[in-house]
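Customer escalation, tier 2.

The customer says the design service returned an amino acid string that "doesn't look like it belongs to this structure." They asked us to rerun it and document both sides in this ticket. The original structure tokens are below, unchanged.
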């Protein structure tokens, strides 16, 4: 299977540069795997597709303000640092732009949100083959506790506003149920939920299971190989509580009477990773490098709520696998659905509209 098979034409104006005025005002394209039918809805109509006893699995990871403005200590040249992976307290892998002249021993000093140089600095200890830098923050406090004064929301590069970041990015690029910090990108399928909609879902008898997967750049890293099977995912940390595992396991024990709705590809990757390792849902924590592409047999997820994904991305491959479990036809089905979304002028990517695959 070739990476180039997962491409489609997307007019640039359909890339959402701003969230919907209200979180749940986005559109919802519903794809029925059994009939192939497409239904055009608005997000609150998700309630019509849920029934009492179903379990809605959400990823509650919180996005770090992981984009940092800085300057080189010696030359004062401006650089941008993006936190990628925490190894231990104040020890991180980061992306530095421009990074070609950043070498081991280089020191970087950070600026606050008003672009004033602060006392916070780091030293580069090594470079990876991918060009990432490992840095040690030279401060007593955990750098995560200082991000509120020096960090910005790490919006994706396809959000290219002339006026730059906006005040509501801090809240709108975050789910309303976000709790433990650790992601460098939002689990965007969850951005559509409001507290009111979640309450209505609970009152309808649907149970909500919160899992955690701290989203790293690996989820969104471009596939650089032509043969899909050769791509390797970066490890991401996850955690499943006893309560969440019990809810999901109980739903699966009903053998289809109650269904597991995964909100986003990250939630799906958690439950399928756990099931692949243990044979069923159990509580625990670990790391996953699961790469889902056609053909793939799903053990847990019965439905997937997701946003529209970039061409040639691992996320597009995952939804293609879900569109036709265990078969190769899912790619064509999803690309047909995406082409219909383009014709209907849906909004794409992180701040865009949603898709429900049943």
């Amino acid at each position: 299977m070739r990476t180039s098979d997962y491409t489609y034409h997307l007019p640039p104006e359909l890339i959402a540069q701003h969230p919907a005025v209200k979180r749940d005002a986005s559109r919802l394209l519903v794809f029925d795997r059994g009939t192939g039918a497409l239904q055009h809805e608005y997000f609150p109509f998700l309630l019509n597709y849920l029934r009492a006893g179903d379990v809605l699995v959400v990823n509650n990871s919180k996005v770090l303000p992981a984009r940092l403005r800085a300057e080189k200590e010696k030359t004062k040249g401006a650089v941008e640092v993006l936190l990628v992976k925490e190894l231990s307290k104040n020890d991180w892998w980061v992306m530095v732009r421009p990074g070609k002249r950043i070498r081991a021993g280089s020191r970087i000093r950070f600026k606050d949100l008003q672009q004033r140089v602060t006392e916070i600095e780091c030293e580069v200890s090594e470079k990876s083959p991918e060009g990432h830098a490992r840095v040690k923050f030279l401060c007593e406090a955990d750098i995560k506790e200082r991000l509120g004064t020096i960090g910005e929301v790490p919006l994706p590069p396809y959000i290219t506003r002339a006026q730059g970041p906006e005040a509501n990015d801090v809240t709108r690029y975050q789910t309303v149920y976000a709790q433990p910090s650790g992601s460098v990108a939002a689990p965007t399928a969850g951005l559509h939920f409001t507290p009111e909609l979640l309450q209505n879902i609970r009152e309808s008898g649907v149970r909500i299971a919160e899992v955690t997967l701290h989203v790293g750049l690996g989820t969104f890293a471009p596939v650089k190989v032509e043969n899909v099977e050769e791509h390797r995912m970066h490890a991401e940390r996850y955690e499943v509580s006893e309560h969440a595992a019990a809810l999901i396991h109980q739903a699966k024990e009903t053998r289809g009477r109650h269904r597991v709705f995964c909100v986003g590809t990250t939630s799906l990757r958690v439950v399928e990773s756990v099931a692949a390792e243990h044979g069923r849902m159990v509580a625990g924590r670990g790391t996953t490098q699961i790469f889902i592409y056609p053909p793939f047999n799903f053990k847990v997820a019965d439905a997937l709520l997701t946003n529209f994904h970039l061409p040639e991305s691992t996320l597009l491959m995952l939804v293609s696998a879900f569109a036709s479990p265990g078969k190769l036809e899912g790619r064509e089905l999803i690309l047909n659905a995406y082409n219909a979304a383009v014709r209907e002028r849906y909004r794409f990517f992180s701040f865009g509209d949603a898709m429900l695959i049943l």
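Tier 2 assessment: The sequence is consistent with the input. The chain has two domains: 3-63+170-357, 67-152. The first strand starts at residue 27 and ends at 31. Sent an explanation to the customer and offered a walkthrough call.
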